[in-house]
Design goal:
six-stranded antiparallel sheet, five-stranded mixed sheet, 26 strands
Length: 354
């Protein structure tokens, strides 16, 4: 056999061996090594804040093949991990773990024994230990825990409780909480939203009927509320859509009449004057035929920026609490029928080309 033939035979044999190795089924085995990496700033003060991201990285456990692995961390305030809180990252299958600061902070608050009714306004720095865990879903033996790392100084905060509602039973809805418009809160104290009110009176209520929750009525001073069972009804001067703000701790409220509601922006002629919509008889929908050009727009009340809506037509955001909603892109050049709805949360709008 000549040298070329010998070389070709050897090459074929090598390809065959490689092919056989490639065809082998992956074999699962329990991993032995899993490392949570200590970040460079672990000794520096870390102030957790709402809306920020907390990051940790770990290695991928070797299961013998590329397995979809779920990750989480155990958090403890003691080195022996006798009491822990488990927190899942935003993306559970990534070893580059990111967490909303609020979830880390809530876990620390739980370990400190704080809850919605008992927590300080400001916190001290805490020494906090972390341990990563990884597992393939459905395979118990795949569970593995990492080494421990410690952050020397983490200052938590108490995240706002889940959103809650304040109802507006009154003359316009048959004094029925569930038929009324709802005000929204993310801290169970300050509520805001739109409600249809009239001279016939109304109250604010935390319950879905008169037999549960707290009802807030008229107090001795304007703008003040009473939670006494004998409190009279609140009232406004005329029927209409009102922006309401309520503080149930300070027992205070304001109502602002929306005399007009319209669109404003370069998509509808400019940012100075609103193009008004026409309200329905119950003031829950406002509509009109609007000529659109290119650009962006928002909805606003009273031809003024004090009350405006934007960002997303299916989930209109408001400018309550200092956050200003984003602009909405034009649907395109032409005439469109616009319907703005305050009938339920989230507020929404539809834009249909004519």
């Amino acid at each position: 056999m000549n040298k070329i033939s010998i070389f070709m035979a050897a090459a074929a044999l090598a390809v065959g061996i490689t092919s056989c190795e490639t065809d082998k089924e992956p074999v699962y085995h329990a991993p032995t090594t899993f490392i949570l990496q200590a970040p460079e700033n672990a000794d520096a003060p870390v102030d957790l804040k709402a809306g920020n991201i907390f990051s940790l990285n770990c290695t991928r456990p070797d299961y013998g093949y590329q397995a979809v692995t779920n990750y989480a961390v155990l958090i403890s305030l003691t080195e022996d991990f006798t009491k822990t809180e488990e927190v899942e990252p935003i993306k559970a299958t990534s070893p580059e773990m990111t967490f909303d600061d609020a979830t880390i902070s809530k876990a620390i608050c739980n370990l400190l024994g704080y809850d919605d009714d008992n927590h300080p306004e400001t916190f001290d720095y805490e020494k906090v230990w972390f341990r990563a865990v990884a597992q393939i879903a459905g395979i118990e033996s795949s569970l593995i825990e990492s080494n421990d790392i410690v952050f020397a100084q983490i200052k938590p905060f108490y995240p706002a409780p889940a959103e809650s509602f304040l109802y507006t039973p009154g003359n316009t809805n048959g004094w029925n909480q569930l038929n009324s418009q709802y005000l929204l809160s993310n801290n169970n104290t300050n509520y805001a939203g739109y409600a249809v009110l009239d001279e016939g009176g109304f109250k604010f209520s935390t319950g879905t009927d008169w037999n549960n929750g707290t009802n807030y009525g008229k107090a001795d001073q304007p703008g003040k509320l009473s939670d006494a069972g004998s409190a009279g009804n609140l009232s406004v001067d005329k029927k209409g859509l009102y922006w309401c703000e309520v503080d149930i701790k300070k027992l205070s409220y304001t109502t602002t009449l929306c005399s007009t509601y319209g669109l404003v922006g370069d998509a509808v002629g400019g940012w100075n004057n609103s193009v008004e919509l026409t309200p329905s008889a119950d003031f829950l929908t406002w509509e009109g035929n609007i000529e659109f050009g290119s650009g962006e727009f928002k909805f606003r009340a009273n031809n003024d920026w004090a009350l405006n809506l934007g960002t997303d037509l299916t989930n209109l955001q408001w400018n309550y609490g200092g956050a200003n909603p984003g602009n909405i892109p034009s649907p395109g050049t032409g005439t469109y029928h616009v319907v703005l709805s305050f009938a339920k949360l989230p507020y929404s709008a539809t834009i249909t080309k004519i």
